[in-house]
Structure formats: C-alpha cells, structure tokens
Model the fold of this input.
Amino acid sequence: MYSLHKLLWEIRRDQALRDRYLADPDAVLDEYGVTGELRGAMRSFDFKTLYERGVNPYLIYFCAIQLEVPRAEYYARIRGEEV
Amino acid sequence: MGTGRVVGAFTASHSPGITGWPERAEPGRRRRVEAAYAEARDRIAALEPDAIVAVSVEHFTNFHLGNLPAFAIATGESYLGPVTAEMASFVNVPQHQYPGDAALGRHLYRFALESSFDPSLVEGGLDFDENFCVPFKHLDPESSIPLVPVIVNGVNPPWPTPRRCYDFGAMIRAAVEAQSEAERVVVVGTGGLSHWVGLPQAGQINEQFDRDFIARFESGDPDRLTAYTGDQIEEAGNGAHEIRTWIVAAGAAGTAFDVLAYEPVPEWITGTAVAAARM
Done:
C-alpha cells in the first residue's frame, strides 16, 4: 500500500516522474515496487478498486488530475462506470 | 499568566470554488456567503490582532503517508501560498508570502509539549493550499496579520478524536494567555462542512448533518460538539473531517459561536459556512 501511496504523492510533486509514468507506467511501477491487484488497478486507472482497497481518495484524485484524466472521466471511473 | 488574550475566534469553509469560481454558485447563496466573509473580515480588523493562530488541514501539499502528523505547529517567519502557480490559478489567489509569527509559534509548540500534547514541529517549508489561501483572501486580503499555522489531520483515517481537538484548542488558549508578546490573538479554523473529494458523491451536500453540526456549534456545549465518532462524520463525506478545525477553534474560544452564513453550494461541492465566536 505505501509504495502506491508514495507513487501517487510523488507524481503530483514531480513533473519528470509524471512524464515518465505517462511514457512507461510499468517501468515506474517496477521502480516503486507496486505489485498485485493494486498494480493492475493503477495500470488501468481502475480508481474504484483502488479506493475500495483503501487507497486515499485525495491522493487518487490529485494524481489522476496530474496524469490529465478529465474530471468527468475520473468520476465515471471512481463510480466503476465504463469509459 | 501573561497579558496575551484570545480576543476573537472565527471559522470558515475553504472550498476552492469560493474564490476560484464564485460566479457558478446561485447568486443569492454567493452573496450571503461573501457577506459573511466580509463581516468576519471587518470584525477581525476591528479586533486589531497582533497574530492569528490559523488552524486547518492540509491536503497532501506538505505531508504524506510517510509522515502524517495528527497535529502540527508551524514556527516559520513566512509561508508560500498557493503552493504552485497551477494552484494559484485554480483558486484565483496570487502566489505570495504570508507573514508568520515565529515567536508565538515557538511558544505554542513548547507550551503544547509542556501540556502533554505531542504535535509535530514544522520550523519552515510549510506551503499553503486552499486550506489558508481561500479563506484568507477574504479574511485578510493584504496578508498583513502574522500567522501561526496549526495543521490537524482531516485527510486520512484514523483521525484525532473530536474531544482531543477541542482540548487542543483549549491548550492554544492557555498558551496565548501564558505569554505577553502577542497580546491580541485571533484564532481562525478553516474547513468543512459536508463534502466529498475524489469520491462518487462529490457535489452532494449532507444538509442535515451540516445543520445539526451548526446547532451544536451554536450551543457552546463541548460535550455535544465532540460527541461524534469518525464514522458519523464520514456520513457527511471525507471532506467533513475538516470540522475538527472548527472544534479546535471552539476549544480555543471556550464559548458558543454564531453562524453568519450557511449555504449548501453544490457548485463549490461544499456545505459552506462562516461563523464567529460569541465573545
């Protein structure tokens, strides 16, 4: 859990990390040691699953905005709707 | 006993929409909220405070889950806000330095430890987000009054209990009274009321919760005000946990408050309120 929380927080703070994540998410997820279900959910922007597994919604939301997920799409995803 | 006194206490919401997109609210609601902020601003100015103890949460702007204080006291000479140019644009507040009352901050921190509270020390580097930038655009538009920022965790469970928040506020009052450098001190708590951030309910407002909270806040009865579990607050959204900042202010005031405005404003995704201590 902490590895993902750390990644979400740092993507918001670090433009270069954000750019690297957008270019090659798996490399960054490897680097942070994000594995298992949380990795899959992060990889596919399944914000609903992230929230249900206990990831802080402020950090999910702020990171999604930083990764240029439109707000309407964010809310569709957190509701578990198809986008 | 020093000659310092808490001469006023105020509380207000800090939704980015209040300053970032005020025009989207229904005009009557906007007018009543802005009139309440103006009333609070005028009252603060009339009190001629030497310093403001400013109590809020912070939204992962400085702290993170590698280090998340339940309470923190800042002792800086100045504070940058909003934290980035992007946030400055988002909340429509020009990026600038807010003055800090470092001496009062250091006194408050030491007094807290000597009073069996264990806040984190933040000697510098604390940047502001909407927590202070939004309400202080209305309450002290020139940023002329030195601040002692106090941060309460309202963004990640588990949270400090409402009783602990009230007692922390009472400690702030005792700390102010134990020194004489800042003779006239105002306490301002910012956050709440009901709202959801990053969750499917974003845009909903739990007006029933808000009105019940206001009734408790206006009653001046600490037992009623602190009789919340974390789960009960959660019913008004993850953002509602910020009411802890109001409870700290109530502890510092030691009196009932009058709510100057309450408006459920979906466009600001927040049950929006401004209040002043009856003192």
Notes: The mean pLDDT of chain A is 96.
